[in-house]
Amino acid sequence: MAEAQESPVGGRLTDHISLGVLAAAFSRDLIEEVVDATGAREKRSRLLPAHVMVRYVIGLGLLFGQAYEEVMRQMTGTLRHLGSWERDWRVPSTSAITQARQRLGSAPLEELFHRAAVPVADLGTQGAWLRRRRLMAIDGTSFDVPDTEANVAAFGRMGSGPKQSAFPKLRVVSLSECGTHAVVAAAMGSCRTGERELATELIGHLDGDMLVTADSGFYSWQLWDLYTGSGAALCWRVGAAVALPLVRRLPDGSYLALIFAPDTPAKRKAALLAAARAGEQVDQDRARVVRAVEYTVPGRGGPDGELICVITTILDPAELSAPEVAFAYHQRWEHESGLDEIKTHLRGGGGILRSRSPDLVEQEMWGILLAHYAIRELMCRAADEAELDPDRVSFIRTVRVVRRQIDDPAAFSP
Known about the structure:
It is a single chain. By secondary structure, the chain is of the alpha+beta class. The chain is 40% helix and 17% strand. It has 15 helices and 10 strands. The protein has helices at 8-14, 20-25, 28-37, 50-62, 68-81, 94-104, 107-116, 149-155, 195-199, 221-228, 266-277, 322-330, 333-346, 358-385, 395-404, and strands at 129-130, 133-144, 169-177, 183-190, 210-214, 233-237, 246-249, 255-260, 287-297, 306-312. Strands 1, 2, 3, 4, 5, 6, 7, 8, 9 and 10 form a 10-stranded mixed beta sheet that branches. A hairpin with a 5-residue loop joins β3 and β4. α4 (50-62) packs across α14 (358-385) and α7 runs parallel beside α14 (358-385). It is elongated, with a radius of gyration of 24 Å.
């Protein structure tokens, strides 16, 4: 989806965003709780205590590419002016900051994200809901990390031989709110770890008011079964290799079909299909009834367009019509727009994460996700107050406003 920075209304809104909201996203009390819960509390008095370093790592995510000392200077400059720091305090060296990051580790940032990053759309937020369900999406991406032995061992490279990637890559699979682009759950690991495997770590963040969309690469019987058990409704695309034997056609053009557990014998499949067609309950351990919606996107995939097949757990067309299923799946692209915000506008196009050890790589990534979440929450609140769709507020412009005012203690107050 096109970036909304051209909207004059959205542009004016970003000029009046309160940085106090940015601080409110991660309160001092919550940070202190997280520090204690993860055992990151310093054993003795430190120039850079754990709660300051949590804020600092989020600042690194917001000010990606700037030197360690410059990020620290921007965060503390106003506080020195206000007398919150000793007069002879000096910005710590890069080495001291790195040591403080190592003492902190990645666990507090991960825990803070899991506690703070919740869906931000209210019932009145425009573009965030489809009927009574919150539109959500899962997808994966990867980030280049420094080429150190430790990072190669932990994260691996894409490809092999002469075609392998130049840098090791961190893989991230995330769940986001389509209407606001707020990432509310994430799992990360080696690029050798499959996206489906990482996606299993997101299940605990689903609930019954969500409609979760996903591309065909995420479909498997096992993952569908796990996500269905969360209570969330699902709308996932499936590839041509997934057999969908017809159970019954429905008035809106969709149809009920069966999906089968792996290694189900052909005779057993036939018996399950016959039972489903007769209206009998099928063995849930071997097969599930789903509703399939097929539609064509003109101008893609060939002269006749691209055929897309989406299956959903919502079996009643009165609850969600076939056009609405197609609309819901199309909203999955909002997740990719959110990933682009992180990779292009926060990280910087082609930028490599700066951390040279696996734990600090993950710490840095959680900091970036927290910075993005805080900005997106800020934008949603501003849009709600103006009764606008959050897409009308410019992400690029908001980031610029926040970066210009990072010295303000309301933004990141140690």
